[in-house]
Amino acid sequence: MNVDILTHEKSISKTRARMAIADCDIHPSPKSVEIEIFPFLSKRWQEYMKTYGVIYRQGFPTGPAFPKGQPNAARRDSYPTSGGKPGSDLAFMQSQHLGPNNIQLGVLNPLQCAQGVQNQDFSAAYCNAVNQWQIEQWTSKDHRLKASLMVPYEDPLASVKEIEKWAGNEHFIQVLLLSRTAEPLGQRKYWPIYDAACRAGLPVAVHAFGYGGAPVTGGGWPSFYIEEMVGHAQNTQSLLTSMVIEGVFEKFPTLKLILIEAGFAWLPALSWRLDKLWDRMRDEIPHVSRPPSQLIREHVWLTTQPMEEPEETNQLLDTIEWIGWENLLFATDYPHWDYDDPSRAMPIKIGKQQKEGFFLNNALKLYGLDQ
Amino acid sequence: MPKYVIGTVEQIPPGNRKLVEIRGRQIAIFNLNGDFFGILDRCPHQGASLCRGQIVGLVESEEPGEYKFSRQNEIIRCPWHGWEFDIRTGRSRCEPNKIRATQYPVTVNDKDQLTDGEYITETFDVDVEGQFLVITV
User: Fold this and answer.
1) Measured between CA atoms, how close is A117 to chain B, in angstroms?
2) What is the pLDDT of residue A72?
3) Chain B residues lying within 8 Å of A337, measured CB to CB
4) pLDDT for the residue B117
5) How far is A228 from chain B (nearest CA, A)?
6) I want to staple A66 with a disulfide (CB 3.0 to 4.6 A). Which of A215, A228, B78, B131 is the partner?
7) Residue-level pLDDT at A10
8) pLDDT at A5 over 50
9) A92 and A120 Cβ atoms separated by less than 8 Å
């Protein structure tokens, strides 16, 4: 009579979103690396991985530097009935998330695997394997889902090769980087990646997290997971500032940048500060020919999850006005614990056009799927 | 308000929980050492099924470095965002006056206390012996 509801009973969202939704941040996992990823890795790298494991660019921990708020960082009701990790079973994802929430477009962002790996050749092979796996296990089986092109970003030339290999492939709709890189992302080392992405017509997405070797904060290693959670915002502000100030958007005028899971309410304040200082120090960076806020408005999109939740909900509208309604992309972060439910994430009534843009059309337009 | 018989006391041993549906409402029933509580199975924050959360205790601190652990197994932690709700009151730990889970009183009744007409027994057959759980919705 007392069923083990934590693991064995299917949990389906009761709230049915009426409108179609684009979810710009879904995290798929392999059921097992050996079963699902190894078929796409050469014997050399299979043996390497079995013997030496995966060594990330960070200190001593073998997993993420900060343990998560829930096991596997996952909703406790997202464990597939078939067993395995959250996000590892397409049928379960369809019945728990894609169907009930009427997801028309779901963008897959595989995490904690091939990127930030110290052995560059292994990172490149692993990224390629994960790219093949996304098509094999996910996007070819459910056309609502689209893949992210994983690149070994600390080796930009290998990254370019990977982008060129897949350019024009309809399964991939963005190039994926993680936010914590070895150097600030605006630096010239990374420019070949932006060049290749532009040539392939793909936006570059940067998901919070990763293994760069540096602390998540500008002030050292914090003690608590909650500090890492808020640290993503400052870490992402640093990489965005770097990209603006180094002149990435001047050099690559067609580049589209998507910042995933780092919050968004900080953007107006950062833009104001950048504009103010640009007015005074423009001659230090003469290659930045326009106010930073303009470059950001034209080149940068942000996913909404984890949604900002001010006590006065109207302040959320002000914040979004300052950023631009067209620059936000709805995301749930399924199956992670800080998931935003589409029926509850927007706490106030907004106009039809704004709502459709926020939940669907901004993403379709950005990814060129609105034709 | 209508009362519904939802099962026998033996069906939800101490520390356990059960999800029942009454008039289309999902309600989570908890047994805290013989005290029974009913909470609408819908987190007031974003609507997750509270019944699928973890039952935990209450950690409090008077100052950094000091911890007090109490109320073991009396707090339900939302399976999504981890909001903590007091199973006895439905109130959230962080915003007790603003965010609270809807509660429904659950009582324990002997069979002879179940008067015909007053209780709606459609959710449970009361032919068996024992003590029955009755919820008011």
Assistant:
1) 30
2) 86
3) 79-82
4) 63
5) 16
6) A228
7) 45
8) no
9) no
Please list every residue in chain A whose beta carbon sits closer than 8 Å to the beta carbon of residue B9. Answer: none
Query: Which residues of chain B have a CB within 8 Å of the CB of A69?
Result: 82
Neighbours of B66 (CB within 10 A): 8
Name which of A272, A263, A268, A271 is nearest A322 in CA terms. Answer: A268
Is the model's pLDDT at A17 over the cut of 60?
no
A→B interface, C-beta within 8 Å: 1-2, 5-6, 11, 13-15, 69-70, 75-77, 337-341, 343-345
Cβ partners under 8 Å of residue B51, min gap 6: A5, B17, B19, B26, B28, B41
Residue B47, token pair as written in the block: 């609507």
State how far Cα B66 lies from the chain centre: 31
Instruction: State how far residue B101 is from chain A, nearest Cα, in angstroms.
Output: 16
Minimal Cβ distance to B80: which of A5, A75, A343 = A75
Residue B98 banded pLDDT, cuts 50, 70, 90: very high
Query: What is the domain partition of chain A in residue ranges?
Result: 21-366
Is-contact B45 B81, C-beta < 8 A? yes
Q: Average pLDDT of chain A?
A: 93
Segment A52-58 shows an average pLDDT of: 88
| CA distances from residue A128 to A87, A121, A166 in whole angstroms, order as listed | 20, 11, 10
Q: A43: how many CB neighbours lie within 10 A of its CB?
A: 8
Assigned CATH for A21-366 = 3.20.20.140
The domain spans of chain B are 3-136
Nearest CA in chain B to A10: B52
Token pair of B75 as six digits: 């707090």
Q: What CATH number does domain B3-136 carry, 3.40.50.12640, 2.102.10.10, 3.40.50.2000, 1.10.10.10?
A: 2.102.10.10
* Under 8 Å between Cβ of A304 and A331: yes
The pLDDT assigned to A314 comes to 94
CB contact under 8 A, A77 and B52: yes
| Contact criterion met (CB < 8 Å) for B46 and A77 | no
**Residues of chain A contacting B11 with CB distance shorter than 8 Å:** 1-2
Query: Which pLDDT tens digit goes with each residue over A215-273?
Result: 999 899 999 999 999 999 999 999 999 999 999 999 999 999 999 999 999 999 999 99
List the beta bridge partners of residue B109: B132
Does B18 contact chain A (CB < 8 Å)?
yes
- The token pair that represents A188 in the structure block: 């010239």
